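ok so i was messing around last nite and threw this chain in just to see what happens. nothing serious, just curious
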Amino acid sequence: MRWYSAWLETEFTVHHSPGVARAWLRMEPTGDWYLVTDPGGYDLPERDGPFVVTHVARGPEHDEDPQLLPHRAALAAWLRDRTTCRIPTDSRL
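result:
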């Protein structure tokens, strides 16, 4: 799979708590965490969504409420200004 079509899989790691949940996890250099799950919040999302993304801030700033994003393009747009992820900019994402 090319990086272009697999940016989420290469920029995040799978976090698994046995018997509880699986999520895509991204830890930023600042210490912030980004968790991406399915809408139920307990499993990996389908490849093309929908996604629930949760930002857990390390610093004093307020954690954002979980965001329901309908597809990969919406997820990319939401993450682009918040993380250091390498995200394709092609509108066909």
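not much to say yet. The mean pLDDT is 84.
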